[in-house]
Amino acid sequence: MKKVVSFILALVMVLSLAACSKPSGSQTSSTPASSSGSASEAGSKPDSSNPIKIGYLAWASGSDAYFGLVAIAALKDRIADINAKGGLLGREVQLIWYDISQDFSESVNATNKLINQDHVTAIIGPDGSPFAITLGGIVEQAKVPLLPNCGNKEVTVNKDGTVKPYVFRVAPVNSLTYETLAQYAYKVLGARKVAQLTESTNISTVESANEFDAAFKKLGGEIVANESYMQNDTEFRAQITKVAQAKPEYVFMPAAAYKEVCNFANQLNDMGYKDIKILGSDAWYNDDALKVAGNSLDGAIVISALDMNSENIKPMVDDFAKKHAELNASLHLYALYACNALQFVEYAINKTQSTDGPTLKEALETTDGVDMLTGGKWKFNENHDPVGPQFTILSIENGKAVSKGSYSIEEK
């Protein structure tokens, strides 16, 4: 498994260096699209001749296109509100996005285009750690802030421990998320035997499994089985048979998308193993997952950095559903992270009255907290990881998510 992941990362590093050495005109694999919110007639119309351009690296095609398409719609809504109030610094804000879903190299190509061709002020995304890890050097050279929403530690910190100066994570780091989940499983749920089912070629899901494994064992728990699958797999009966033989109380599944989890849950239920429950994360949990899996997910426990049913977020979810019924997809956590990233960019521009990259970087590093639309006051620590999100534990009951309140790691 490690060899596969290492090979993929090595390949992306080579592609990154190649992309940086070519003019942006030679990169033709990504297809751009742009949008800008229109100012309301009641407000002062922002200057569209000198717009502030914000880039977005979107997973916008294929079986998991809902990730990017929902986020694009949410960002457009936010930008329309900004422009209706006069824009930023009196200038119209424009969103320029590229679809990076074909392979890892797309994030490199699109980042270079956003910087060299589109001249963006900041870049939001990408959603996946494998797509984000190699971008630190590119944005550092260009002095353009990058705000990805993914959990692998290498997204913001190099292997030698140095921080990537222009990368600011807007989602919790995996180590914190899954140590918290391990403690909850052991100390609150009373779990002692857990199996793991992991997407084997995704560096973030592999790291998540490793973090949970280490934390759960340290507490005294046992990982009784380790099984894997590939992205977009639909058949899980072989893994279920092996997992069931180990008699776990829970299966930890740090999936990157909900479809694999739903297929696993439905097949687990069909095979009669209703006593085995799922431990999961907000990377895959959303209302659409509940629609697909129904009661098969009952008993699942999910850790989330955002409570989608909170008084801050639930109205946003409902409003999005009314505005974007054509998408046939719910407002999800990745889209909210993208909006939070945009809020950080807004804050830095308004605070400094500038779009200069180094100036924005300093503002992001030194803020004492930005009030997020999703709730809470967020800032960045020394590793450019967010401080402020509070973990919510959700229990799936009768096909619905029920909040069990917030939960934090106990003091050591």
Blueprint of the fold:
Blueprint: H1 2-21, E1 32-36, E2 47-58, H2 66-84, E3 91-99, H3 105-116, E4 122-124, H4 129-132, H5 136-142, E5 146-147, H6 174-188, E6 193-199, H7 203-219, E7 222-229, H8 237-245, E8 250-252, H9 258-270, E9 277-281, H10 287-293, E10 301-304, H11 314-323, H12 333-352, H13 357-366, E11 370-371, E12 377-380, E13 386-387, E14 392-397, E15 400-406
Parallel strand pairs: 2-3, 2-4, 4-5, 6-7, 6-8, 8-9, 9-10
Antiparallel strand pairs: 1-3, 10-14, 11-12, 12-13, 14-15
Helix pairs in contact: 1-3, 2-12, 6-7, 9-10, 12-13
What does this structure look like?
This protein has 13 helices and 15 strands. The protein has 412 residues and is of the alpha/beta class. The protein starts with a helix and ends in a 6-residue tail after the last strand. The protein has helices spanning 2-21, 66-84, 105-116, 129-132, 136-142, 174-188, 203-219, 237-245, 258-270, 287-293, 314-323, 333-352, 357-366, and strands spanning 32-36, 47-58, 91-99, 122-124, 146-147, 193-199, 222-229, 250-252, 277-281, 301-304, 370-371, 377-380, 386-387, 392-397, 400-406. The protein is 40% helix and 19% strand. Helix 2 runs parallel beside helix 12 (333-352) and helix 12 (333-352) packs across helix 13 (357-366). It is globular and about 65 Å long. The protein has a 7-stranded mixed sheet with strand order 7-6-8-9-10-14-15, sandwiched between helices. It has a 5-stranded mixed sheet with strand order 1-3-2-4-5, sandwiched between helices. It folds into 2 domains: 2-171 and 317-380, Rossmann fold, CATH 3.40.50; 174-304 and 390-406, Response regulator (Rossmann fold).
